[in-house]
Amino acid sequence: MADDVESREARGRRARARSFVLGGLVGASAVAAGLSRARRRRRRPVQAGLGAFESAPCYRELLESERREGP
Description:
Elements: H1 2-43, H2 50-54, H3 57-69
């Protein structure tokens, strides 16, 4: 009877250890993916405010059409 209880406890410890290791691997891969995404975002320059609006293609097309039509 005591051997049965000990074997159940050993299985429980192994299951918890396995879960801990798998959780660590999943967490580490999530961190790695997040870091690579953060690095990619920094490469692209970001214009703030009106500069971003004025460089938009739709705004440039609007200015061009207004110039063609005149005042």
